[in-house]
Write a structure and sequence with these properties.
With 380 residues, the protein is an alpha+beta fold. It has three domains: 137 residues, no CATH class; 63 residues; 100 residues, no CATH class. The chain has six helices and 24 strands. Strand 12 and strand 13 form a beta hairpin. It starts with a helix and ends with a strand. The N terminus is likely disordered.
Length: 380
């Protein structure tokens, strides 16, 4: 009776070592950790970028600007600009090629204050050959509300080039579009502010019921431990509502919530792009056990015409006789069992058939038609 306790103690001490050895040998698979931060899978409702757009002129081009005869709006813009500067050039017939009319676009991020700098994109509207070396003059950028939120100006950085000669031309990239880093100054801040967005709501980037519940549970577990109250409630599969604890700022609370870890759940999907042969299979995709065979029939037709030469002094004419060789090859098709409850088993089953991506795409579509593919099949 005294030996039972030492033996039991020895078994308990060796059990974790045996389990680790079995896992290392592949007998048991350790669960994969797929936890991510909440801030990486959600976004705060109401916080978004605002698109800005404006019409302007790029000057200083080396003869690569718009042809004013083909782009009358460029000539009108030049006349209007010079009128504001006190110069009257109307009815003078401008013929400059150093100016190009452009559209200027930008995105105004949330929480941008007056005086902040943002990047802008510039694209030609007329028949300008290149914007290389150009300078964008002051251009107001308006939002959907019609108000001017920023003003852009600066040198245009163009990555493309275009060289034209008498007998040959060279073009690389797009020389009629460019970018001005920090080229716009914010004049009217983004209306989205932490105190103006209303109730706090987290919108899931990939909506799912299970993910929304896990996010709410993780936030409630943290807030209950730290603040003594539950602050999250799953509203639907797309959003989670938050209640701000007492005496806690919005920025601090969102920062604390964003670092919590959850394991998102997604629907089982198979994405197929037949143009590039790309196949993406989700982790939860399962295939019921099916038997699959796939073969291809190759027919090769070879034309080898021959010339028929008549005998001398026979009065005949030389003729070309057709000769066609047809070779038909059909490899032996092997019947394979494809099925599995994990992604690794499914991939191993498809690899056993030894097919190209086009063949695997055809097999996946056939398995889906047979009702054995337990996932959503999306073809692009």
């Amino acid at each position: 009776m005294r030996l039972k306790h030492p033996i039991r103690h020895l078994i308990r001490s060796l059990a974790p070592l045996a389990l680790a050895a079995l896992m290392a040998a592949g007998t048991f698979a350790a669960p994969a950790a797929a936890a991510v931060r909440i801030k990486d899978i959600v976004q705060l409702e109401g916080l978004r970028d605002n698109q800005l757009v404006g019409y302007g002129l790029v000057i200083g081009l080396s003869g690569t600007g718009d042809t004013l005869r083909n782009a009358p709006f460029t000539e009108q813009a030049i006349q209007s600009m010079l009128d504001r500067l006190g110069i009257n050039v109307r009815n003078l017939g401008l013929r400059t090629r150093n100016v190009a009319a452009v559209l200027v676009t930008a995105e105004l991020p949330p929480f941008m204050n007056r005086g902040a700098r943002i990047d802008v994109n510039v694209a030609s509207m007329g028949d300008a050959a290149s914007l290389l070396g150009g300078q964008l003059i002051m251009t107001p950028l308006s939002g959907a509300d019609g108000r001017v939120h920023a003003v852009a100006q600066g040198s245009v950085a163009v990555s493309g080039s275009n060289t034209v000669g008498q007998a040959e031309s060279f073009s690389q990239g797009v020389p009629t579009a460019g970018r001005i880093p920090n080229g716009a100054t914010v004049e009217l801040p983004n209306p989205n502010r932490p105190g103006d967005i209303g109730p706090l709501t987290l919108d899931l980037k990939n909506p799912d019921f299970a993910t929304a519940v896990r996010i709410a549970d993780a936030i409630n577990g943290y807030s209950l431990k730290r603040y003594g109250v539950k602050t999250a409630h799953e509203r639907d599969f797309r959003s989670v509502a938050l209640a701000l604890p007492a005496r806690v700022g919005v920025t601090r609370f969102i920062a604390e919530v964003g670092t919590l870890m959850v394991e998102p759940d997604t629907e089982a999907r198979v994405i197929i792009d037949s143009r590039t042969g790309t196949i993406v299979i989700g982790q939860d995709v399962q295939v019921s056990t099916v038997a699959v065979t796939h073969g291809s029939l190759t027919v090769r037709v070879t034309e080898t015409p021959v010339a028929s030469q008549p005998a001398p002094f026979s009065g005949g004419k030389t003729a070309v006789l057709p000769r066609t060789d047809v070779d038909v090859h059909e490899p032996d098709g092997q019947l394979r069992i494809v099925g599995g409850t994990t992604l690794r088993h499914l991939v191993n089953g498809l690899n056993q058939i030894g097919l190209k991506p086009s063949g695997i795409i055809a097999i996946l579509q056939a398995i889906k038609a047979a009702g054995a593919l337990q996932a959503e099949l999306i073809t692009q």
